[in-house]
Amino acid sequence: MNKTIAVVCAMKSEAQPLLDRLSDLKEESCHNFEIYRGTLGESTLLVCVSGVGMVNMSALVTYISVKYLPDCFFNYGIIGGYGDIHKGSLIIVKDCININSTMFEAAPEGAGTSLSRAKLVTFSESIDNGPIIYESDEKLISVASSIVDKNIICGRLGSGDMWNKEYDKIMLFYNEFNVCGEDMEGYAMYQVADKFSIPALSVKGVSNNEILMEKYDYSVMDKLSDFVYSILKNI
Predict the structure, then answer these.
(1) Does this model's pTM top 0.85?
(2) Which candidate in 99, 197, 200, 232 could, as Cys together with 73 as Cys, close a disulfide (CB 3.0–4.6 Å)?
(3) Angle at CA of residue 58, ends 54 and 64, nearest 5°
(4) pLDDT in tens, 10-23
(5) In terms of residue numbers, what domain contains 59?
(6) Would you tell me the crossing angle of helices 220-234 and 12-19 to the nearest 10 degrees?
(7) CA of residue 57 relative to chain centroid, distance
């Protein structure tokens, strides 16, 4: 059965290794989104580039959901690792939390800013809501897990329009919310896909880790792109 898989990346450099492997490639770019249609086995792949950030990703996923009605969304790209997650690790995202949706408790002038007064919330009519955590589709996780070896992690992705380099902030998310790494688009894909009831999965490659003082290294994309290709062939 032919499936339509929407593959969404933040950057063209992330999408390019997959584009290079597809046959019958055709560009269908629109609304400043780069969109390419290709074939992999019996599946049609829409490889799409959103641009960096939550708004860009949410706009793209909404557009793809309405125009193409894909069978699933698949996101991949590079992230910063948290805690003891080393550079070069590959991660199957089991679920995703918005680490930028934060409420700070009241404090007097001169008290400064403190994480001890912050909590993650989901902003709605009832302000005092805890964070909503979106889960990856179990069948897609199963496909990805069947390909991997024991060195690949299945964990929680933190996502938000921020780039964390503060030790205490990173370790707060790592220890209190079990976040293994962060990106700037994943939560938007999951949230919009959930609204359209479209299954979704994200896989990530760790390019750096501030806690372990491991500097940025884009070469993890080579290993990640091979992993991504293997998953997509089996969906």
Answers:
(1) yes
(2) 200
(3) 145
(4) 999 999 999 999 97
(5) 4-234
(6) 50
(7) 10
